[in-house]
Design goal:
Low-confidence stretches: none
Structural class: alpha/beta
Strand order of the largest sheet: 3-2-1-4-7
Bound molecules: zinc ion
Number of domains: 2
Order of helices and strands: EEEHEEEHEHEEEHHHEHHEH
Oligomer: single chain
Strand content: 15-25%
């Protein structure tokens, strides 16, 4: 028997199976196209594998993660064309006939880091991914926080100095929320080129400013024991050191703990599992069912 996981991201889906030892022994990744085609490819992958015992899904959102809701497993208000109000858990359960555990893609990544990566042994921490969008998996007291739906760290509102940065913001819901100002989509819209092609230090100072403004609110609200920042933009070399400097300045010594002072290098860190955090976490979600 094997257990399966899907990192169902807005840009790519990754499917994997793992044996009892947890090692991934088959992995396949494909672009997120239409719901029917994408879910169909995942079903094909696991049908091919056969002998599946349980499936864990880390889905892009917003997605209904409340198991008691009739809309459990449905992606709701996403701006991604064709995906609003899409039930992803239903078709997978029907086609594969196995129990399914589902959480957000960022909660799955947080679970991966908690079990095997940079958050081992912690109770309260946040995993933030800065890529096409910005998302955050929030762990408090040893479990993911869901609440009304789930936290949306990427859409928090932060100060926006329009003299320094006249860009209106790219979030279709809020304009200049954190994601609207600092996601890969925002970088491309503001500067006319993708983040990986931008090497002006001013670009990355501004990016660090916004991320630090978002993260200072996370630190102060949750008293997080660690911040893990990943994603294609989050992992751009040299960005996290800039964010650490601004984060420390913004906190201004108010929270007097070593993690926010001399130990900040070990407090604000990249994911130890790198881009595999999400799929490893999805497998862990499945493992929780058996
Ligand atoms: Zn927003």
């Amino acid at each position: 028997m094997s257990i399966g996981g899907i990192e169902a991201g807005g840009t790519r889906w990754t499917c994997a199976v793992a044996g009892a030892d947890g090692e991934l022994d088959r992995v396949e990744s494909f672009p997120t196209t239409t719901p029917a085609e994408t879910i169909g490819r995942a079903i094909e992958f696991f049908t091919d594998v056969g002998d599946l015992e349980a499936l864990g899904v880390g889905a892009f959102g917003p997605v209904v993660v409340d198991r008691s809701s009739p809309r459990w497993g449905t992606i709701t208000t996403t701006p991604k064309p064709g995906w609003a109000d899409t039930d992803i858990a239903g078709p997978l359960a029907e086609a594969l006939g196995v129990p399914i555990a589902l959480d957000t893609d960022v909660d799955a990544a947080a679970i991966g880091e908690w079990r095997h990566g940079a958050a081992q042994g912690l109770d309260t921490f946040v995993y933030v991914t800065v890529g096409t969008g910005i998302g955050g998996g929030v762990f408090a007291n040893g479990r993911p926080v869901h609440g009304l739906l789930h936290p949306e760290v990427g859409h928090m509102l932060i100060p926006h100095d329009r003299v320094r940065d006249p860009f209106e913001g790219s979030c279709p819901f809020h304009g200049d929320c954190l994601e609207g100002l600092a996601s890969g989509t925002a970088l491309r819209a503001r500067w006319g080129r993708p983040g990986e092609e931008l090497d002006d230090p001013g670009v990355w100072d501004l990016e660090a400013e916004y991320l630090a403004l978002g993260l200072v609110n996370v630190v102060l609200t949750l008293s997080a024991e660690r911040l893990i920042v990943g994603g294609g933009v989050g992992l751009v070399p040299g960005l996290l050191p800039r964010v650490r400097v601004r984060l420390r300045e913004l906190l201004a010594g108010y929270v007097e703990v070593p993690q926010l002072g001399p130990d900040l290098d070990r407090y604000l860190v990249p994911p130890a599992l790198g881009p595999q955090a999400g799929i490893v976490g999805a497998i862990e979600l499945a493992r929780s069912l058996i």
